[in-house]
Design brief:
five-stranded antiparallel β-sheet, four-stranded parallel β-sheet, disordered N terminus, RNA-binding
Length: 849
RNA sequence: GCGAGCGUGCUGAAAUUGGUAAACAGACAGGACUUAAAAUCCUGCGGGUGGUAACACCCUUGUGGGUUCAAGUCCCACCGCUCGCACCA
């Protein structure tokens, strides 16, 4: 294209730097609490500083930024901070690999990623930046730990963990692959360790019930949390063990089948198993059960007879054998069940394996196992219940059990307490010491933080804090006795369960957060992040808010008012055709005659196109956002990220899409620099002076403002982009009066600025705007703007379109019929065969024949 | 196995409370400009029938049924895909 004399070329690199500097200099995005102003807290889930931002970050932060900028121009006091979830294993692993220190590695990464995020042009208040691995952050976290401990919301208990015998460390479930340690390859054992737990189950009911209040959350996420908490209503029943002074409690949701009990099944981790622990046979059995790390539904159900019998709670003459089994979970209910093989598939399978007799307790239901629950089924083989319906039997059994003090009604949750101990170095130290006499005490508040030692040796096996020559040895200040520090560190989910509170007063040295500030800013109005955090992080954060409240902090119960879960960024994948196919980077794939191949040192190798999958290093389909921003600019990248797919859906990455997006910005930039216009916020022309086409355009402009605003508010960014492109397509093509031209393009830039801020700011400045674009109030649509009062009515016969008619708005049915009968084209529609005419004003006339 | 969601052109998608299906894009094809290419601009782009043509008509939202004047949208069944949980007593 020949450049016009006045035209300047679109140079994103130059203008993006320029505007980022201006925003920084003007402190455009710093937020101060201003009680007079309405606040808006936009937060994206903070990143783990792995070294480089990826497309998922780019998408996440673009979405958040559009919202933050939208509310800012709508004159809200916006809080839009950023920080780093900077503790965690990757740093430790990288440190071992690169022979460096996790702290240095993390700090390097943060520096790099901060620069990358800044190059996107995000409207972030960088003054509020926090990092969870900094002393200034974890000092307060240790205080929170102590507060929770004092309120009995943190406790220590023995629990079985995944233990890697080679690396001498505990592994998280996701680090155990096929029963082996992900790094060492050693077979993972279950080992009993004393671990710290957070009592999240104390809030199970509340966390469940309050889901109903979360109107701004996707139903899907709420349902996932509901299922995760997993409430079931049932009865806890005590079975007396014969000959010894013990009883076993079991939980059941089907008390009406109590006379179908053929055995008691106990987890090998049930405390009663201690009695058999010196039996060599049993030890073997127990180990076998414990070794299967991921207890699989396909595992054969095995049992070990305890030698003991229980009494039936409602008939002491019935003797029930007690078995230890591998299919009863210690973590659910009481770790013991009564087995009813006739009416439970698992118990049925077990009874078959062991050879236990059983019979149906429902009349005419002899095809076993019969697991349906039909309220009208009639009982049999159940003593005093015989002849009653299931419904009646249930009621009667429960009342008898309660009456005879053999048990009570109970709610049970699937949710378990949250284990927060990690035998790792790179995490927040737990502020606890153990004196020589075994007493556990918390560190004095004045002595916080307990800092991590920097001179550590990561090359040894096991917990580096435990291995450190001096760190753990201390003297108890209170008793002057020798003591040892807790060497476990906290799970990083602990770090991220309250960071959104810290953002409200990130520099406060005295307290985790200043309650005047949190009172103003909390809750987070919009929280945006990946759906993979639907359960853990979000549930933990909800729990923390409640737990902190119990500790006397003034926090809202629900931290996140509205939750937006964005989809993944996907990209096409290619594989070689070998027997063990290798992934091939799409950039290295060429096409020829509809076939795909790649070049390997001059050799052509055929490859197969796979389906589009989430970008990942292992599938070699990653595209680095940095390179895209460098080549096409941040505005192109931002616009592409939100143009095509709605946020909650997966986004298909396409370089053609990026190119086309860039082409569009280029086109508008060139057009507006060669067709000079003056930026204006006012339309000072008598609307009656507009010609017909112009008044249609003016109406359209107002409809764009309305719809675009609505779309942005509701995260329909792809629709918003479609509207604004429609507007610019019209404006580029149509010849219009200068005043209207100026006004329309000014509106365009104001609307578009939240998506492409550098681009819009630059063009607005070129057009003579002296202030900052983001300080101008969001445009408002003129509600009375319908200069053009015509409307399109669709004509249908039997619901099928037969034509259309342009009429005055709100025209009556009779008037429309009159027009139709006078019309040459449509008079034929109206004949004697019409049975009925359906008229929907301003929309449709349907003739039913 | 249980629970949830989704199936619309070659592709990403759009379609307020049921009311013009395919907006806005991408890919592709043709044309203009050019020695040529790139860039840019213009045109076409779900399928079919008839017509030289403007145009007219028919079909089309995974499959089959239903409700309704009217169904992509609501209801039932089936098929397919995706996600979450998974021995939860």
């Amino acid at each position: 294209m020949v450049l016009g004399s006045d035209m300047t070329e679109y140079n994103p690199k130059k203008i993006e730097k320029k505007w980022q500097r201006i925003w920084e200099k003007n402190k455009s995005f710093e937020s101060k609490s201003d009680k007079e102003k309405k606040k808006f807290y936009v937060l994206e889930m903070f990143p783990y500083p792995s070294g480089n931002i990826h497309m998922g970050h780019l998408r996440n932060y673009t979405i958040g930024d559009v919202i933050a900028r939208f509310y800012k121009t709508n004159k809200y006091n916006v809080l839009h901070p950023m920080g780093w979830d900077s503790f965690g294993m990757p740093a430790e692993n990288a440190a071992i690999e690169n022979k460096t220190n996790p702290k240095l590695w993390t700090e390097e990464n943060i520096k790099n990623m901060r620069a990358q995020l800044q190059s996107i042009g995000l409207s972030i208040d960088w003054n509020r930046e926090i990092s969870t691995c900094s002393k200034e952050y974890y000092k307060h976290q240790q205080k929170i730990f102590i507060d929770l401990y004092k309120k009995n919301l943190i406790y220590k208990k023995d629990s079985y963990v995944n233990w890697d015998p080679v690396d001498n460390t505990v592994l998280a479930n996701e680090q155990v692959i096929d029963g082996k340690g992900w790094r060492s390859g050693a077979i993972v054992e279950k080992r009993k360790l004393s671990q710290w737990f957070l009592k999240i189950t104390a809030f199970a009911q509340e966390l469940l019930e309050d889901l109903e209040v979360l109107h701004g959350w996707p139903d899907k996420v709420k349902l996932m949390q509901k299922n995760w908490i997993g409430l079931s209503n049932g009865v806890e029943i005590k079975f007396k063990v014969r000959d010894i002074d013990e009883s076993i409690s079991v939980f059941t949701t089907r008390p009406e089948t109590l006379f179908g009990a053929a055995f008691l099944g106990l987890s090998v981790e049930h405390q009663l198993s201690d009695r058999l622990d010196n039996l060599e046979e049993f030890k073997k059995f127990k180990n076998r059960c414990l070794q299967t790390t991921d207890r699989n539904i396909d595992d054969e159900k095995i049992g070990f007879f305890s030698g003991l019998f229980a009494e039936h709670p409602l008939d002491e003459n019935i003797k029930i054998p007690i078995y230890f089994t591998n299919y009863v979970l210690i973590n659910y209910g009481t770790g013991a069940i009564f087995g009813c093989p006739a009416h439970d598939e698992r118990d049925y399978e077990f009874a078959q394996n062991i050879g236990i007799d059983f019979s149906s307790v429902f009349k005419n239901k002899d095809s076993l196992p019969y697991v349906e629950k039909n309220e009208n089924d009639i009982m049999q083989n159940s003593e005093f219940l015989d002849g009653l319906s299931l419904k009646e039997a249930k009621k009667l059994v429960v009342s008898k059990i309660i009456e005879q003090k053999k048990g009570s009604e109970k709610k049970t949750y699937r949710l378990r307490d949250w284990g927060i101990s990690r035998q790792r170095y790179w995490g927040c130290p737990i502020p606890i010491i153990y004196s020589e006499d075994g007493e556990i005490s918390t560190i004095e508040e004045s002595e916080l933080p307990v800092t991590l030692p920097e001179d550590i040796d990561l090359s040894q096996n096991g917990n580096p804090l435990d291995n450190h020559p001096t760190w753990k040895f201390v003297k108890c200040k209170k008793t002057n006795k020798q003591a040892i520090r807790e060497t476990d560190t906290l799970d990083t989910f602990f770090d991220s369960s309250w960071y959104f509170l810290r953002f409200c007063s990130p520099q406060n040295d005295d307290k985790p957060f200043d309650e005047i500030e949190t009172k103003y800013w909390m809750s987070v109005d919009h929280y945006i992040g990946g759906v993979e955090h639907a359960i853990l992080h979000l549930l933990y954060s909800r729990f923390f808010s409640r737990a902190l409240k119990k500790c006397g902090y003034d926090t809202p119960k629900e931290p996140f008012k509205k939750l937006v879960t964005q989809g993944m960024v996907c990209h096409e994948t290619f594989k070689t055709k070998e027997e063990n196919p290798k992934w091939v980077n799409p950039n290295n794939v060429l096409t020829e005659a509809g076939k795909f191949y790649t070049n390997d040192n001059g050799k052509k190798i055929d490859v197969l196109k796979g389906r589009s999958e989430k970008m990942s290093k292992s599938k070699k389909n990653v595209v680095d956002p940095d390179s895209i921003i460098l080549k096409y600019g941040a505005d192109t990248a931002r616009l592409f990220m939100i143009s095509d797919s709605p946020p909650e859906r997966d986004l298909e990455w396409s370089i053609d899409g990026i190119k086309a997006t860039h082409k569009y910005l280029n086109k508008i930039y060139n057009f507006l620099t060669s067709n000079k216009f003056n930026f204006t916020t006012q339309f000072d022309l008598n609307k009656n002076k507009l010609n017909n086409d112009e008044s249609i355009l003016y109406d359209f402009l107002n409809s764009v403002i309305t719809n675009y605003t609505d779309d942005i508010k509701n995260y329909r960014f792809n629709n918003a982009v479609a509207k604004i492109r429609e507007l610019s397509n019209k404006l580029v093509k149509q010849k219009i009066t200068k005043t209207l031209f100026d006004y329309c393009w000014s509106i365009y830039l104001r609307l578009f600025a939240i998506i492409t801020p550098h681009f819009s700011s630059e063009l607005a400045e070129t057009a003579g705007l002296k202030n900052n674009l983001e300080d101008i109030f969001w445009p408002e649509a003129e509600k009375t703007s319908k200069i053009n009062d015509k409307i399109l009515i669709i004509l249908q016969v039997n619901g099928k379109k037969r034509g259309s008619l342009t009429v005055e708005k709100e025209m009556s049915k009779d008037d429309i019929l009159k027009i139709l009968s006078n019309s040459e084209k449509y008079s034929g529609i109206i004949d004697n065969e019409i049975k009925k005419i359906i008229y929907v004003p301003n929309k449709i006339v349907n003739f039913v024949k």
